Amino acid sequence: MSTDVFSNISPLDHRYLMSNPKLHSKMAQYLSEGAYVKYELLVESALTRVLSRRGLCPSDVADEVERACNEITAEEVYAEEQITRHNIRALVNCIQRRVSESARPYVHFTATSVDIMDTANALRYRDFTRDVIMPEGLALLQTLIDLARREKRTVQMGRTHGQHAVPITFGFAVAEYIARLGNRLAEIERTANNLRGKMAGAVGAYNASSIFFEDAETFEREVLGELGLLPAEYATQIVMPEYVTDYVHAVVSGLGVLANLADDVRHLQRSEIGELAERFEKGQVGSSTMPHKRNPWNFEHVKSLWKTFMPRMMTVYMDQLSEHQRDLTNSASGRFVTEILAGFVLAMHRLQSVVSKLVVDTARMSANFEASKDNVIAEPLYILLAASGHPDAHEAVRRLSVEASSKQMTVRELVDQKPEFAEFLAGLSEKQKEYLSRPETYIGRSVQKTEVICEIWQKFVDERTCR
Amino acid sequence: MSTDVFSNISPLDHRYLMSNPKLHSKMAQYLSEGAYVKYELLVESALTRVLSRRGLCPSDVADEVERACNEITAEEVYAEEQITRHNIRALVNCIQRRVSESARPYVHFTATSVDIMDTANALRYRDFTRDVIMPEGLALLQTLIDLARREKRTVQMGRTHGQHAVPITFGFAVAEYIARLGNRLAEIERTANNLRGKMAGAVGAYNASSIFFEDAETFEREVLGELGLLPAEYATQIVMPEYVTDYVHAVVSGLGVLANLADDVRHLQRSEIGELAERFEKGQVGSSTMPHKRNPWNFEHVKSLWKTFMPRMMTVYMDQLSEHQRDLTNSASGRFVTEILAGFVLAMHRLQSVVSKLVVDTARMSANFEASKDNVIAEPLYILLAASGHPDAHEAVRRLSVEASSKQMTVRELVDQKPEFAEFLAGLSEKQKEYLSRPETYIGRSVQKTEVICEIWQKFVDERTCR
Amino acid sequence: MSTDVFSNISPLDHRYLMSNPKLHSKMAQYLSEGAYVKYELLVESALTRVLSRRGLCPSDVADEVERACNEITAEEVYAEEQITRHNIRALVNCIQRRVSESARPYVHFTATSVDIMDTANALRYRDFTRDVIMPEGLALLQTLIDLARREKRTVQMGRTHGQHAVPITFGFAVAEYIARLGNRLAEIERTANNLRGKMAGAVGAYNASSIFFEDAETFEREVLGELGLLPAEYATQIVMPEYVTDYVHAVVSGLGVLANLADDVRHLQRSEIGELAERFEKGQVGSSTMPHKRNPWNFEHVKSLWKTFMPRMMTVYMDQLSEHQRDLTNSASGRFVTEILAGFVLAMHRLQSVVSKLVVDTARMSANFEASKDNVIAEPLYILLAASGHPDAHEAVRRLSVEASSKQMTVRELVDQKPEFAEFLAGLSEKQKEYLSRPETYIGRSVQKTEVICEIWQKFVDERTCR
Amino acid sequence: MSTDVFSNISPLDHRYLMSNPKLHSKMAQYLSEGAYVKYELLVESALTRVLSRRGLCPSDVADEVERACNEITAEEVYAEEQITRHNIRALVNCIQRRVSESARPYVHFTATSVDIMDTANALRYRDFTRDVIMPEGLALLQTLIDLARREKRTVQMGRTHGQHAVPITFGFAVAEYIARLGNRLAEIERTANNLRGKMAGAVGAYNASSIFFEDAETFEREVLGELGLLPAEYATQIVMPEYVTDYVHAVVSGLGVLANLADDVRHLQRSEIGELAERFEKGQVGSSTMPHKRNPWNFEHVKSLWKTFMPRMMTVYMDQLSEHQRDLTNSASGRFVTEILAGFVLAMHRLQSVVSKLVVDTARMSANFEASKDNVIAEPLYILLAASGHPDAHEAVRRLSVEASSKQMTVRELVDQKPEFAEFLAGLSEKQKEYLSRPETYIGRSVQKTEVICEIWQKFVDERTCR
User: Fold this and answer.
1) Which of A34, B385, C245, D8 could form an SS bridge with B6, CB 3.0 to 4.6 Å?
2) Which of C285, C293, C300 sits opposite A165 (nearest CB)?
3) How far is Cα D337 from Cα A292, in angstroms, rounded to an integer?
4) Cα separation, C318 vs C306, whole angstroms
5) CA dist., res. A119 & res. A129, Å (int)
6) What's the gap in Å between the CA of C467 and the closest CA on chain A?
């Protein structure tokens, strides 16, 4: 069934995905309705195969079913659903129609709809993670690692509360996102690999399958094993929801890391800060009325995606509650998990593209640092005074700061005028004095920490990309 | 640009709307991207018309622009956006390309992108409310009114905490949803009619338009007046967000009312309660493995829509925050408001359809009432005892209940055995005694209240449907 | 019952309120448990008064009950609740214990617990709004009006996407928050005055009261009228929840306005921007380790309060759903509404205090403007070119901007070098030329709009403060 | 500082915790402000100890500081904060005041406030998990295990969509919550043990500490090692937030499991179902006006706690975002994490108490089963027909169900009347025939699955309680 994309109501497909048809079609292989049907057919096929292996039906029945499952399209199933008003009954009817009469009884045999649907979802989320999320995530991680390594010695003013604090390097600032994104990707991978299927029937007690198999749990394990999945520890009609809840949490919290990165870059692009810029394409327009504008719109877009998808975690938490052996109130809401996954990939893809072209204006970075470097020596000054035995170093330096500010002098200038500090400063080593005279050396372990973080996550990337 | 609907990632269009192509296409006229572009063109056209009326450009320029705006398609604009990477610049380019060289400068003249977009959104949300939400809402309201009137005397056990409490009528129970849905529709209508546009330029200060008009605020008022809108009391680059926030709140809280209705009906369909049922179509399948099942899936679906869309209000609240004269972090997130609107209509439409076919099993309703009617006289008994001067009526009746329960007697039977109550009960009127002997008369003002509520909201419906 | 405040688990009281004992105690008169009990007693008292007026009991019963209600303390009720395990039964017992035996039956007569509790909540929220929210809100509004008026001509660079856009005045920027906060206060007032009570009994059908009164609805109206309240249009055991939902929405969206204001001020305090500063008290410490730091922590605090309380609106939306004539799952959650109200007042109070002491660094404001004023003429230049008949003004100016940037020239300098623009610029009026030569005049209607907004909301303040 | 509990605004302490003073005081040892200060002092003490071990200061300095830290109270720190307006500076001042002049410089040496606060939080959340969450969780788990084992053979109707489906046992239904709660407790334990501290200074780059130690990372590791913690992989001024995010997610999703259990029990207590009941204490009142009511209010309370605390996860997700090396907008919001933890424990504690006294009405359970047992054979019938070669078994049985319903017969009766089924049923084994004649045997693997789940989680409990 084809449709005019501009008559879609959801902006997701027409606005955010179709602008990148390659990415869209890659994701659609797992997240679209067509893909869902395809995955459900994989589960039906695995089921019949194990039935045949256990001698419940001849092996050509399994072959017939597999052939049918390879041929059926979503369109066909949807047409049938117009009659049955039940999506899995429609699917089963489509398979049965394509197989011989003797094969028909073994289609979907002993299974309940959700055995097929929950298992198909576990399978496609897992595959999507392996085939789309991880490659996109690793590409972004690599881009960040390359950037951090390149800029590991570029001195930048550290900022807390939006105020100049003490120096770091820009590479060290980037390393934050390597560690945090890496940590989230590891968690996404872990939780995706822990997604579970089921083949436990209408209320999870193997009522139907145990008619035929003493070891119904083993039978379940075999069917799921065909697909590389483990059974849920417990299922009612549905797989216990915490496997999916943990997985979506990992994704949503991953999106939070991206949003934070986007915010940081956005603010560093402020006119007054100007340490970073998005490279604009030729012909690209920044504003319809202000031709001079170059807006950080890609980073704003990533933040906006977070605002769009993060609150949907509440839907996932609400879907943890299902009455008794199951109510169906998670039926529509559960389907929208795919949108969260797509939103996360969209954000990573966008970031990878703009971060790889990020322009670092080292001149501005340096100028911003210079503007308050004489004041930021307050911290090492206070600490060195304290270490030299000054009894009230913090308060003394706080007063110096206030005085410096009111006299429009730097702390550095003022401290040199005050004889009461001389005795404490006299005993400092050359290196320690340098912190006060050349604050740009007061970057702590920025370089080494950046290197360590890059090494850890480079290994993570390498292990997954077989370089 | 056409697309295979089964490759969509969002389930909204392919799963929940395309099953009802008529409703989908009705909604798409306001909520789709095609509709958005159409509405933006209306705003551009209104702008040039007022420019011409004020003599800034000849009137045939306005005619030319209007003609162009009538012809342009979303497809054309999107193709241009591939180059400009800016949606409104693309739109403007498309208009300019279709008009004479002398007309071109007056296209989008003095406007900023958001003047067009925010105004177009206010316009289409308002139209959508008037043309889709209200008709759907009124139809559901009418269905509920008809049901309440029909069942206003059908005695039903009132339930609190899921426990039998004191009697009402089923019509009275339905009246709850008439009052609450009616109240929400009135609020949706009010807030929709309070949506505002703007024509105040890049930072809201009329910088560009005030070059040409001393009375730039009046100019704005004229342009928006063409579209039947009022200007925002204040705008930065964007309309102050609270108009939309209030509107979406009204819709989301309306969805909450529908979800509560759905829950109530759902539970009344429990096997053990069985007071209501969804009428099944011939051939309809309830379960893929349990052929006897008839599930309340439409009501479950409505609850599921609420779980899907309600948390998205948090996105709307987050979009209230925009830095200084605007950041763009509401760009993607703001577009998804359309989905919430669609979800609400979807839920009302579904409910209207199933409530109109709701089967009331009065026999079961009556049987459920009978099962504990002798116990529910505890309330009138305690009150009548108190009114007759019993000093500790509540405690006395509470003990009676405990004793009745342990003796497997009814409260009614037990009280008659206890001489200590005789004196207090002696003075009761016939009507009062009837409450104790025929608890089904103890329905208070259920009938009258139902009638009043129905009358109020029938008037509301009638005023809006010109009957 | 007294307690060590440092053993409280909730940070709300000990951390955020007790630092301001005066404000805390003012709020506690409405929001504490003690206040809740006091308000419940007001409702019980009003009930008996109307019973007596209608002749159901002698008037000295009403006097006795009123006296008792004035004396009872929360402590007493809680002690009794240890036995009854039911808060309103405990309250009723406490009243009954203090009145004569003949008065006892008329205490709480025909009422159900929630008649008392929901009515008490409507009453105290309404009073809290009138006595605390509005005064605090008006004080903040007045502070903003004073600031806007003072700074209405102070030129500031308008910023979109964090980028310099076109000029406004600082007063105009402040006017945004006058309009938005004013709008929210009006909505809070409207919804608070629309809060409703009930006296409709256990399932809302007046079962008990209609034993004694034919016109049970009028009886309800009289009891609530004693308290200045209207009855809910419909009630089950509980008042239909949308009255409270709308009220809390108004408050939560009001908190969003405060958070946005806080963000704006925060960012204008960034080291590189420095247009605003919080005035520090003598002795105040900015950082435990960086003695020079002066952090915008009050504004950060307001943002943090928004993050704390905004998501709780979801609880309110969930509490819209209550099964049949009521389930009790809103019992605990509904009590936390008081925290949202307290959080909102806390944020307003904090803002009022710091905004009134806000330091505007006009030198920095001016310097920031100067830094890009030559580029921001791009907008008026493009518009004037277009108005003078340039066929492709936007694109021409966009190219100028790119060229200016690459040549490190200003747009202004570059345009003067380009003969192709001369003919279009020749016909400009003096005023129009001034926009290009003195961009600080290109502030549109900033001053006038600021004045209009201030006037509107000054009137709102004045009407409510009887000046 | 003592306070009247009834003037508290937060209902958490006065309403939900003080009713259980023992539990409250146990939790307050970790979650109160007093506890927070105590934990911060532990961190300050550990810091000085490592400084002395590394020779930066004499060992009696560490002794002095430790002594001071053992003595200081929250009250003292709060009094000092009135002056400094900075909580950690106040803490440091308090310590310094109690130690000799020569020791003062080494207090808080090289640390930033958040080094102390984030580390203290990691520490107390971890301890709280070990000392309160886990014991409470294990007690509830044990109660559920005992119940499941006792009821493992009690046949209960399985319910999907609130409709009778196919049979299970009540023990099997309970096993759901053993598996899910167990799974959550394991996740809570895992994430609590992964909470991290930091001692990396104002921007996370060890600027201050690396003045004195080449190996500042090792120094950090040593200080945290004193407390049994690991350092964060990366820190800005704050520990990267995902450790806490994961922990709170585990808790919030654990609360979801409890809410689901509460819902299930609540519905099984409905008057019409009546399979379970809360045991009421003598004198306990169910309703202020309906003396006969026995409401499932404890289970409703647990659901209400979930509605209160679950949405707060959004605050935690928002707190993932902190600008650059840190903004302070997580300062207030982060403190409220303690309330979520308290809410979770409160829910577990309440559930443990009521589940341990849960009354199972096996007669009603059996009666409910009997009521539709003849219809639920539809599933085994369809499957056995299919296995016997019936080509269209599902459709045939669906039609049987419809016919049975319209003829008010059971499926069982009807199938025996239809000769067309005879041939397929002829070949069934005795066991298979029994499913149709005695549907109560059609419980699948309910018993065995219950046993397996109980065994797994009994082991989990035993390992943690050293039995």
Assistant:
1) A34
2) C293
3) 45
4) 19
5) 15
6) 40
Q: How confident is the model at residue D88 (pLDDT cuts 50, 70, 90)?
A: very high
Q: Which residue has the tokens 């599930």?
A: B295
Burial classification of residue A447, based on how many CB atoms lie within 10 Å of its CB (0-12 exposed, 13-18 middle, 19 or more buried): middle
Substitution target in A157, A292, A320, A323 with the highest count of C β-carbons within 10 Å is A292
Structure tokens at A386: 């304290």
Placement of tokens 């504490």 in the chain: C32
Q: How far apart are CA C321 and CA B302, in angstroms?
A: 13
In this complex, do D371 and B272 lie within 8 Å of one another by their Cβ atoms? yes
Contact D242 A384 (CB under 8 A): no
What region does D79 belong to: left with phi over 0, alpha with psi -120 to 50, or beta?
alpha
In percent, the amount of chain A with pLDDT more than 90 equals 75
Token reading at C262: 């806080």
Half-sphere exposure of residue A346, counting CA atoms within 13 Å on the CB side?
A: 30
Residue D381 phi/psi, 5-degree rounding, is -60, -50
CA distances from B422 to A181, B375, B418, B430 (A): 78, 18, 7, 15
Tokens found for residue B415 = 């009280």
Helices B113-128 and B33-53: angle between axes, nearest 10 degrees = 120
- Taking CB atoms and an 8 Å limit, are D292 and B401 in contact across chains? yes
Collapsing DSSP to helix, strand or coil, A406 comes out as helix
For the purposes of burial, counting CB atoms within 10 Å of the CB of A27, is it exposed (0-12), middle (13-18) or buried (19 or more)?
buried
Evaluate whether A206 touches A196 at the Cβ level (below 8 Å): no
pLDDT at C447: 98
What H or E segment, with its residue span, contains residue D339?
helix D337-356
Q: Which residues contact D148 (CB under 8 A, 6 or more apart)?
A: D171, D172, D174, D175, D178, D450, D453, D454
Confidence check: pLDDT of B42 > 80: yes
Interface contact C338-D24, CB threshold 8 A: no
Q: Is the pLDDT of residue D129 over 90?
A: yes
Across the range B73-87, mean pLDDT stands at: 90
Contact D113 C289 (CB under 8 A): yes
Q: In what helix (H) or strand (E) does residue B277 lie, and over which residues does it extend? A: strand B276-277
Chain D contact for A48, CB < 8 A?
Answer: no
d(CA D306, CA A61): 49
pLDDT tier at A124, thresholds 50, 70, 90: very high
Phi, psi dihedral angles at D4 (to 5 degrees)? -80, 120
Q: Which residues contact B374 (CB under 8 A, 6 or more apart)?
A: B410, B411, B412, B413, B439
C160 in contact with A, Cβ within 8 Å = yes
Burial class (CB in 10 A: 0-12, 13-18, 19+), D451: middle
Asked which of B40-49, B406-415, C267-276 is least confident by mean pLDDT, the reply is B406-415
CB pair distance less than 8 Å for A234 and D383: no
Other CB atoms within a 10 A radius of the CB of residue D59 amount to 13
Q: Are strands B163-169 and B196-197 parallel, antiparallel or unpaired?
A: unpaired
Chains with 3+ CB–CB pairs under 8 A to D are A, B, C
CA distance readout (Å), C116 to B395, C224, C338? 19, 10, 17
Max Cα-Cα span within chain A: 103
Q: What is the mean pLDDT of chain D?
A: 92
Could you tell me if A425 and A393 are in contact, meaning their C-beta atoms sit under 8 angstroms apart? Answer: no
* pLDDT tops 80 at residue D292: no
Contact C181, C159 (CB under 8 A): no
**Whether the predicted pLDDT of D1 surpasses 60:** no
Other Cβ atoms within 10 Å of A57 Cβ, number = 22
